[in-house]
Amino acid sequence: MTQHPLDTLITRLPKAELHLHIEGSLEPEMMFALAQRNGVSLPYADVAAVRAAYQFDSLQSFLDLYYAGASVLLTEQDFYDLTWAYLEKAHADNIVHTEIFFDPQTHTARGIDFAVPLAGIRRALADGEAQLGITSKLIMCFLRHLSEADGFATLEQAQPYLAQIDGVGLDSSELGHPPSKFARLFARCAELGLPAVAHAGEEGPASYIWEALDLLKSRRIDHGVRCTEDPILVQRLAAERIPLTVCPLSNLKLCVVNDLAQHNLRELLAAGLCAMVNSDDPAYFGGYLNTNLLACRAALNLTQNEIVQLVRNSFEASWLSAQAKQNWQQRITQMLNP
Ligand code: HPA
Ligand code: ZN
Asked: Burial letters for 115-152: b for 16+ Cβ neighbours within 10 Å, e otherwise?
């Protein structure tokens, strides 16, 4: 079958990814290999059984398996291998810059020292830049189902390593855990010079997006798709060019939308929002970045202009330097006008 011409463009364009949980890139094959290497037992007979279990009806039904899967990650080398595998996939998708999340509390709660995941991830990111030319940022997420005090304890453990952490985020179970629960923690992070992002408006209401902006000073909103329930909020997001890191296949798999054809991605762009496409937890949701873009192109019949806008937005919304952003935008312009 011949490829749709826009699909060729999607695969060829240089892209930035801004919403990727590194623990969510743990493929079932690696889960089994690490379980064996570390003597951890898994409640699955084989890789096929793991994949068969990936049928979710909500964010929580996914998180239960995501945290269980992460239990095979013990050593610095495990975190290196996990991150390196993601970077190779990213490279194959022409991702040239990635800003990834990690969840330290998922690991420190199992008795792993804070420094272990950080060192393994950082070593892989350094190799990714040296060997694959992929630049990166690392964002430490707080788990919102835990207490703010637990978040403060994690920030305390992070203090010696703040030079290796580019920002903070907020993830895990959204409903019942509004951003306001973490206002003091994020104020402290701001004092320490850590820029913030937050998941909001995935399953939670538009009011959580307001809170993320006003109480956490979130510079981007992760997901944010429920913003369209509040036209005043959409106006603000557009006026301030606050990016939304949208994850379409994640939204589909977690039943945030019932059908990709009903996703509001096009509506977000049409409203002038700085939205772009990301893979979130690709090992669990059925695809990396290009698979997400290709699926949206097909389901929503995206135009070339919309695709290019999404990719340009990924660089605009990144934490790259102004010069690097300009270089990538120029590269895209050159590719479109050879
Ligand atoms: N939402 C909230 N928490 C998460 C997600 C998500 O999509 N992925 C990993 N942790
Ligand atoms: Zn996420």
From this structure: bbbbbbbbbbbeebeeebebbbbbbbbbbbbbeeebbe
